[in-house]
Amino acid sequence: MPTAFPPAARLHRPSEYAAALKGRRIARGALFVVSGPRGSAEGPARLGLVVPKRHAPLAVTRNAIKRVLREAFRLHRGSLPDGDLVFRLVNRPPALSLTALKRQVRAEADALLARIAS
User: What is the average pLDDT across 7-35?
Assistant: First the structure.
């Protein structure tokens, strides 16, 4: 599977997010919870991101977190099972430099996606 991130690999509608968030919790890390729908999976893996302002008040922080999560998903997409995944930031990230925060988010995203893929 190519390592592109086309629009078909993203969740777009609020109803798609709602179905995945009401579903089961697939994995949990220090910063993120990954949820997916309860029913059978349809089509290839798709990604949704929820990074609330209350946990990451600065736009630059929210955008950096989303960028890193999209890149990690893009690289793991071929090994993931079919279905929708929603990464939700549930804890405030520690006060780190942006580079250190990106490293921490990437390490956690890789670990969660590897757990999901196995």
Answer: 92
